[in-house]
Amino acid sequence: MSLRTLGIQGKLLSFFLVVIIIPLPLLASVVYWRSSGVVKGQVLEQLAWIAGEMTGKVGSALFTAGEQARLLANLPDIRNYLRARAFGLQEDLARQQASLREYFEQFLLDHPRFSHVGFLDDRGGAVAAAPASWSAAAQRAAGDEEALALTPQRATRRVLAPAQTGGEPLVRFVVPVQREEARGLGTEAARAAQELLGSFQAPEGVLVLDMNLTELRSIFASLRIGSRGRAFLLDARGGVLAGGDELNRLNFASRAPADLASLLGRIVGGISGTGEYACLETTCLVAFATLTQEGWKATVVAPQADFTRWVDEMRTLTIIFTALIFVAAVLAAVLFTRQISGPLQELDAAARRVAAGDFSVRVNLARRDEIGRLAETFESMTKRLRDYMVEMEEKQRLQQELSIARSIQASLLPQHPPRLPRLDLQALSLPAREVGGDYYDFFHRQAGRPNERLGLAIGDASGKGVPASLLISMTRSLLRSQVEVSTSPGEAVAAVNRLLFEDCVGFRNFVSIFYAEFEPASLTLRCANAGQLFPLYCRGRDRHIEFLTLPGTPLGVRSDAQFPEATLVLEPEDVLVLYTDGIVEAMDERRRMYSFDRLQRTIQRLAAGSARAIIDAIIEDVTKFCGGEAPNDDMTLIVMKVREGAPRDEALSGTEAGAEG
User: What CA–CA distance (Å, rounded) separates 623 from 620?
Assistant: First the structure.
């Protein structure tokens, strides 16, 4: 198989085999060889930083405790006790001692990290202590001449071994206390006070505060370095103060080999540093830092195998080798460019011609690889584009025709309802598509004469789109012709039905229509129904709303269908609403219909407004109900409202009209 017949996939596979896959083992070996040194250096750096942070936390805890001791040494009760002792006021001495004991007991309750607190005089006697059992040990400690000889400007703290306290190690803070000299007195008064009280330079007592190691142990117990790393605290002699329960896990408390013994000597004698020893079948890295005043060592130990901190080094090496691979890839790609670029340039030129609108272009490449199949796909795409452009031109032509049809249909609807002094009349039709199957019309006959009449028609053809619009247009023409020669609504509707049945025989389409004639002089409405939804009638005097139930067969179903009439006498402020099923059958996103009940409530709520306001409110409520859903049917409304002051004709009755609430 020659290189010319090899497919693009085979060529790329050869490229990656020669340029990338072979150098990968070499790259991996170099990276892993260099990574071990980087890991150790980074881990030791991190451990040294952690050890320094731990000394800071321990120092902060001790500093806070020392400040607590200084605050206790400056208690007013202690000053008052010393002052009372200087003047020999025995009652004040007893009262101050009792007050100090209560304060110390409450202090230990509020500060659980402290185990003992007491104030001792310069002879070692316990003035006040908490708990009471601690007084004897405190008296022995107060006899320490070193503690009593301290200057009053500085406190000291030292770790006591279990043998000294009979329990766990603790930190003892000793603060010398002396009376304050008389301040704010004149020269003679100060001299008299000095003669009376004597010299105040030597301490007159010490405040002793013992802190347990619970807080320090919690600091070290909560620290985890990696998956197995731990931290612990050593005293100046190498004794474990905190974190000792973790030592055996790292072989640090076992019989030390030579390297570990040497490392422990470095830790005890040094200030800070790092080291390593054999543990856990690997190498453990150690870093320590010293808390200067106490000489304690915050020590951190972690197995080297738990860390892989060599990403930065590997990234540098990867960049270098990537550059080399890139150069090799460029050289290899040149070999394939001449075989690939020529056909692709030809395809590019053909694509540019197609983009410019020339769909007659042809690409003939006698190849059996992917580029040949690409050329075949390009040919197929060009043919589909030609067909698509023809289809789009046809759709555009149909769209223009539908737009014209919609304009014509809209022009067939009355642009403005007839204006009658006694009537507020408005209508609206919203098609769901370019053309609709809904219809409404008005017929104003004998205007201004005693027998003046107003015809109202609303209809809905079955189906949607162009067929429904043609059927409703035919119905409109037939009804307009029959209204002029008929004497009643029922007669006009029956004549239209016969003519429509003859023209539509063999088809399954039909038309529902409601036609009524209104006499303004008597406020009488005569109506006939051919399968249309029952109108809603709202009485103005009590806002009672009901359906005008009037049965009838849709037009075009039966040639001999009969259409009974009904008569209704209206009163001022009465409202009549004619509507198509697109209103009540409008659906929201959950496929729930708008319903007759909601339409009734809307009309009843807004019956006091104008006809236009009622129509606008109904459309707004339907739109809000549907949310983002597009209308699925045409929506048409006619609202007729009798104006206030219109005459009534009690001689006429609505006995022929039925109503259903």
Answer: 5
Cβ neighbours for 605, distance < 8 A, ≥ 6 positions apart:
none
- How far is Cα 106 from Cα 99, in angstroms, rounded to an integer? 11
Nearest CA among 438, 564, 447, 604 for reference residue 513: 438
- Whether 500 and 461 have beta carbons less than 8 Å apart is answered as no
Q: H-helix or E-strand containing 220?
A: helix 214-221
d(CA 520, CA 540): 17
Mean local confidence (pLDDT), 628-633 = 76
pLDDT at 102 over 80: yes
| Tokens matching residue 450 | 């005693």
Residue 531: is it exposed, middle or buried by C-beta count within 10 angstroms (0-12/13-18/19+)? buried
Report how far Cα 241 is from the mean position of its chain's Cα atoms. Answer: 49
With 0-12 / 13-18 / 19 or more C-beta atoms within 10 angstroms meaning exposed / middle / buried, residue 242 is: buried
Percent of the chain at pLDDT > 70 equals 67
Residues 6+ away with beta carbon under 8 Å from 122: 148, 202, 203, 204, 205
The top-scoring range by mean pLDDT among 345-354, 496-505, 564-573 is 564-573
b/e sequence 267-277, b meaning 16+ C-beta within 10 Å? bbeeeebbbbb
The pLDDT assigned to 189 comes to: 42
Tell me the torsion sign for CA atoms 6, 10, 15, 18. negative
User: Residue 227 — φ and ψ, nearest 5°?
Assistant: -90, -25
* pLDDT interval class at 197 (50, 70, 90): very low
Q: Which residues contact 10 (CB under 8 A, 6 or more apart)?
A: none
Give per-residue pLDDT as tens, 146-189: 444 444 444 556 666 554 555 677 788 888 887 665 333 344 44
What torsion, rounded to 10 degrees, do the Cα atoms 494, 497, 498, 504 define? 180
| Alpha carbon 565 to chain centroid, angstroms | 63
Q: CA 384 to CA 377: how far, in whole Å?
A: 10
Residues 6+ apart with CB under 8 A from 566: 526, 527, 528, 548, 550, 654, 656, 657, 658
Residues whose CB is less than 8 angstroms from the CB of residue 341 and which lie 6 or more positions away in sequence, other chains included: none
Q: Contact at 8 Å (CB) between 531 and 509?
A: no
